[in-house]
Amino acid sequence: MTYTIAEPCIDVKDRGCVDECPVDCIYEGPRMLYIQPDECVDCGACEPVCPVTAIFYEDDVPSEWKQFTPINAEWFNDDISGVGSPGGAAQVGPAAVDHPTVAAWEVL
Fold it and tell me: Which of 6, 10, 68, 108 is most exposed by smallest CB count within 10 Å?
């Protein structure tokens, strides 16, 4: 299991979670942040510091945002972001693309 960043992060990207993450597994896209599921150690340090309540343990993602669990994982595929699993977001820096669903997301 892992943590998931959901819709409330789109166009917010507070980055408090990035500062709290002890394993540097939260990566930045143009519109939102993504958790690398293979690098996340399930410590939960990111969840309480999110000012918009966008981070959830995988089993606790609200039903309206369940699609964000695969969105977070798929974003790391080479054919989407090209990030893969480099072992730390600081080494990579911000990516140039979001997951296609996030890129097309209309925030009301």
Answer: 108
Domains identified in the chain, total number: 1
The answer to whether 66 and 4 have CB atoms below 8 angstroms apart is no
* CATH number, position 36: 3.30.70.20
Task: Please tell me whether the overall predicted TM-score, pTM, comes out greater than 0.85 for this model.
Answer: yes
62, pLDDT greater than 80: yes
* Type of residue found at 45: A
Q: Which residues of 49-60 are buried (b: 16+ CB within 10 A; e: fewer)?
A: ebeeebbbebee
Q: Express each pLDDT in 6-49 by its tens digit.
A: 999 999 999 999 999 999 999 999 999 999 999 999 999 999 99
Closest to 22 (Cα-Cα) out of 108, 90, 106 = 90
Give the integer Cα–Cα distance in Å for 101 and 14: 20
CA distance 103 to 30: 8
Closest-CA residue to 9 (of 47, 54, 71, 49): 54
